[in-house]
Structure formats: structure tokens, C-alpha cells
Fold this protein.
Amino acid sequence: MPRIGDMAPEFTAQTTQGTINFPADFKGKWVILFSHPADFTPVCTSEFMTFGSMQQEFDALNCQLIGLSIDGLPSHIAWLRTIKDRINWKGMKDVDVQFPLIDDITMNVAKNYGMIQPGESETKAVRAVFFIDPKGVIRTIIYYPLALGRNFDEIKRVLIGLQTIDNYGVALPADWRPGDEVIVPAPSTMKAVDKRVTDKDMHCYDWFFCTKKISKEEVESKLGK
Ligand code: BEZ
């Protein structure tokens, strides 16, 4: 089962957008590789409508979305067409899912990525979300059970957070959003508590916990770069 910090396992797969060689085809981009239990099911449909509607927001973050389930291409194509032609949910309609959806009828990819969790289901992938950076390293993994739809604002927040961590060499506190204070890493923290070297923009709660401001505009100007 791949873990945070591992290179994303390689595979070649058929998708609704043609064959992909993963992760080589996406080098230089962030990737969110996510699984869903089955086509033509309600929670998955609500998720695809939400993710499909957010496509441009993820494009702007230089992030490729890639879906996967243990269904074949004919099922994927028919389901995505049904979503586009027939489903009107929460003000979303005509949703044209343009990101690739992997045919994993053999379960090859799902098994390699630990998406089959037999206590939950032996035949369906759980709702896994892998965040993979432009060098092909797995940076975050989130799992949800079959019956619980994902929070896509949180998925976008995680992606923005990972990019900000890389852009500024900082850590991010609970519930961080762009514009909130970021956590200053330890060596600068040590300087700040040494009264001779005080950064006026830094706020220290104790010797191990200092934050500083980075404006929303500054954070956003570097996202997707
Ligand atoms: C759903 O997407 O609605 C679903 C799929 C598998 C099990 C439970 C719900």
C-alpha cells in the first residue's frame, strides 16, 4: 500500500480520455487520483457532478484530476453521458466530466494503490484521494467509506495547502486558508525568541509555536506555478 512520501506506483491504463501512462504523462503537474465505488450510484454521481463542475478551478492550480473505479469503459462512458444529459442536482446540470476516468475492471490499479479495503468491500474501491506532486511523490492520502461523499472544498484546500507549503517552506495550522497566518519553521522560531533577532511580522505563542502573516494575494499569486 503506497504511503505519503512514496513515489506514486506506475501503471498504464485505458481511460475515457484514451490511454495514460501514469505518472509519466503528468510530470510537472499536480495530480489528484481518486477512486469511487461504482458507476451509476447516487453518492458517486453527486461527487462527479461536483468535481466536474470544479474542473476549471483545478486547472488553474495546475492540477490534473483522474478518477477510477472497478468498472469498464462502456459503463464509464454511459454513466458520464447520463450525468451530462439527465441529472440536474443542486443547480448543477449539463456537467461534462472532461477528466480521465480509468477502466480498472481487473482491479490492478486499485489493488496497487490500496483502494480495495476488504472490511468495507471486496469488490468496490473505497473513496480514496491521492495527492501527487509534480515530481510524482505522494503527498497526502485521504480515505472515505462507501456511504460518505467527499468534501471537495477540503480537497481543494489540501491542494492549495500543499502548494503553499512548497512555495514558502512553512507549515500550516488547523483549518488554514489563504490569508491566515502560517507557521514559521523551527530555526527562524529560535531566532525570534532570541530577543536580539525579532521579526516584527512574527507572533510567538511560545518558544515552539510562532506564526507570520502571508497575505491572501501573495499566497494566491504563486498557486499553480
Ligand atoms: C453510492 O455512490 O451511492 C454508493 C456506492 C456504493 C455503496 C454505497 C453508496
About this structure: The longest strand covers residues 63-69. The domain at 169-222 is CATH 3.30.1020.10 (Antioxidant, Horf6; Chain A, domain 2). The chain is about 30% helix and 20% strand.
